[in-house]
């Protein structure tokens, strides 16, 4: 009789362990899917220029939502004319620039968009009192300005890699600076591809 009870208790214990194991497996959260998107015609107006002081609010973008935002805190990258700010570092002293309150960083890599598969080993720059993390000026960063045609053209193979304000990673490729990607149309309209990894600390694309 005692042997039978022992066997029954052992059987119950095995079943309990099995159910506990299944519950534990169910609690494991699968990584979120990596997102690949195209943003078209993101307006980045500015005032001034042509020898006059440049001003106007930056257009802020949040990679978490994949949308333009007016939030003072929930943004990763911001555009005004050809200037790009990130939500990390210090104020540059530029008129009307957004307040930085995140940990964003950025750098330019040369290569094809698909060839960049990880950010392991990279050192990110932040905006500072002396410069933007994404360099400004023709041939210094993402674009070339042609004085003969008066056109701004993204430099092929210049990929922007970002750490977002909350330590996720993005790679982006600017495709056009003109509305509907038409160089005869109005400028200051960004179209770009990006890949966003929403998993904190995951460095792969």
Explain what you see:
The chain has 205 residues and is mostly beta strands. It folds into 2 domains: 29 residues; 167 residues, no CATH class. The chain is built from 1 helix and 13 strands. It is globular. The strands form 4 sheets. A 5-stranded antiparallel sheet has the order 1-13-12-11-8, with no helix packed on it. The chain has a 4-stranded antiparallel sheet with strand order 5-4-6-7, with no helix packed on it.
Summarize this structure briefly:
With 205 residues, the chain is mainly β. It has 1 helix and 13 strands. The chain has one helix spanning 2-27, and strands spanning 35-43, 47-49, 52-55, 59-62, 67-69, 77-80, 83-86, 105-110, 143-146, 151-154, 158-163, 169-178, 187-197.
Domain module count: 2
What proportion of the residues is helical, as a percent range? 10-25%
State the oligomer: single chain
- Adjacency order of strands in the biggest sheet: 1-13-12-11-8
Beta-strand level of the residues, as a percent range? Answer: 35-45%
Unreliable stretches, pLDDT < 50, 5 or more residues?
A: 1-25
Question: What kind of sheet is the major sheet?
Answer: 5 strands, antiparallel
Number of strands: 13
* Shape designation: globular
Global mean pLDDT: 90
Q: What is the rounded Rg?
A: 24 Å
- How many helical stretches? 1
Distance between the termini: 62 Å
Class by alpha and beta content: mainly beta
> How do the SSEs run, as a string of H and E?
HEEEEEEEEEEEEE
């Amino acid at each position: 009789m005692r042997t039978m009870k022992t066997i029954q208790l052992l059987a119950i214990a095995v079943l309990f362990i099995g159910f506990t194991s299944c519950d534990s497996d169910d609690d494991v959260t699968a990584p979120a899917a990596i997102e690949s998107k195209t943003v078209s015609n993101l307006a980045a107006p500015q005032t001034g220029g042509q020898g006059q002081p440049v001003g106007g609010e930056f257009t802020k973008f949040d990679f978490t939502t994949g949308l333009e935002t007016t939030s003072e805190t929930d943004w990763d990258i911001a555009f005004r004319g050809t200037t790009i700010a990130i939500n990390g570092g210090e104020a540059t002293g530029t008129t009307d620039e957004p307040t930085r309150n995140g940990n964003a960083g950025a750098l330019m890599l040369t290569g094809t968009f698909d060839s960049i598969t990880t950010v392991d080993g990279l050192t990110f720059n932040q905006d500072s009192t002396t410069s933007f993390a994404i360099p400004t000026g023709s041939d210094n960063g993402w674009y070339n300005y042609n004085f003969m045609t008066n056109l701004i053209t993204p430099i092929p193979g210049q990929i922007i890699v970002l750490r977002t304000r909350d330590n996720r990673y993005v790679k982006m490729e600017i495709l056009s600076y003109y509305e509907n990607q038409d160089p005869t149309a109005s400028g200051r309209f960004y179209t770009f591809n990006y890949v966003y990894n929403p998993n904190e600390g995951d460095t792969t694309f």
